[in-house]
């Protein structure tokens, strides 16, 4: 039987895991949205910055980025803002947010480009103000198109939080390894950690399905075209 003390530590670690994942995902969403909007128009400087950013953070593993932010981050920040302490939490959030911001940028930009241009033009003809167009016309359609990819990205971010225990962050995997080493029962505590991730994944799909049903209201599927009859069928 698992010790209740270690189970409580796993619960504390689970809360830290969720906190890191949520903060990192929000940072990635902000970065991805900014780059998606900035790269809609082919401006040389913006494209160049995007190419450099995407090449670096999609080509380097998340764990290596976390190591760089945690160990080299204080020196880099100190050169700009003065002495600053970079905690494992800050390094983990920055690393995951920067890495997955590159993936969300492509996803959001593709969703925006797939919204029919006529939707925007029709709203302009009706003299709808631009903020209202973006909020009430474009955003629901972009969310509906990007939701499956955003859901998958959230799950990947959540699972990648297991890597940041290597920089000293006390999340669920760190406590699971500690409990396994002390009790010599690794199966129990790693299984509890697995159940946590499975439960969070299931909850994510439930919430995503509810959001998808809400954003899909009023959207009708096109009827399937009837197959053409060949000459043999006509005879």
TrEMBL record:
Keyword Phosphoprotein among UniProt keywords: no
Keywords noted in UniProt: Cell inner membrane, Cell membrane, Membrane, Transmembrane, Transmembrane helix, Transport
One term of GO molecular function: transmembrane transporter activity
GO cellular component: ATP-binding cassette (ABC) transporter complex
Signal peptide start-end: none
Lipid bilayer topology: Multi-pass membrane protein
Record-linked InterPro entries: AA_ABC_transptr_permease_3TM (IPR010065), ABC_transp_permease_HisMQ (IPR051613), MetI-like (IPR000515), MetI-like_sf (IPR035906)
Subcellular location: Cell inner membrane; Cell membrane
Superkingdom of origin: Bacteria
ABC transmembrane type-1 domain location: 14-208
Transmembrane annotation, as ranges: 12-40, 52-72, 92-112, 133-157, 187-208
Keyword RNA-binding carried by entry: no
Similarity-based family: Belongs to the binding-protein-dependent transport system permease family. HisMQ subfamily.
Name used for this protein in its record: Amino acid ABC transporter permease
Organism: Bordetella genomosp. 8
Lineage: Bacteria, Pseudomonadati, Pseudomonadota, Betaproteobacteria, Burkholderiales
